[in-house]
Specification:
Layout lengths: L2 E5 L2 E4 L4 E8 L7 E7 L6 E7 L5 E3 L7 E6 L4 E6 L8 E8 L13 E2 L3 E6 L1
Parallel strand pairs: 2-11
Antiparallel strand pairs: 1-3, 3-8, 4-5, 4-9, 5-6, 7-8, 9-10, 9-11
């Protein structure tokens, strides 16, 4: 059983930056993938970024690479999402997710473990 706890959400101005954290506990990091998804009101959950814990390869949702960066701190079993040049359309609840497989999949239903979510609101 893996427990994921997100932190770092809040209100940020348009064009600003924010860093989200996701701390994993209760499982092994040996062969899993961690990812960030987001869900805005009235929209489906959307893949933001993923990281293969074994080889460090990353993957990003459409048009997000360059503004968003996923990274990790192995010793802390923590994955981060660095967001910059934020826009109003980035406003959403951001979720951390994990699956026991090295493949970074963009489909939410393929992930077994989820955090509680953290709200990010981009205001002008």
């Amino acid at each position: 059983q893996v427990t994921l706890v997100e932190s770092g959400g809040g209100v940020v101005q348009t064009g600003g930056s924010q860093r989200l954290s996701c701390a994993a506990s209760g499982g092994t990091s040996a062969s899993y993938t961690m990812a960030w998804f987001r869900q805005a009101p009235g929209k489906e959950r959307e893949f933001v970024a993923g990281l293969n814990w074994v080889n460090g390869r990353t993957s990003y949702g459409d048009s997000l690479e360059g503004r968003f960066t996923i990274s990790r701190a192995n010793a802390k079993n923590t994955v981060y999402l660095h967001m910059s040049s934020l826009k109003s359309e980035d406003t959403a609840v951001y979720y951390c997710a994990a699956r026991y497989s090295p493949a970074v999949i963009t489909t939410p239903s393929e992930y077994t473990y989820w955090g509680q979510g953290t709200q990010v609101t981009v205001s002008s």
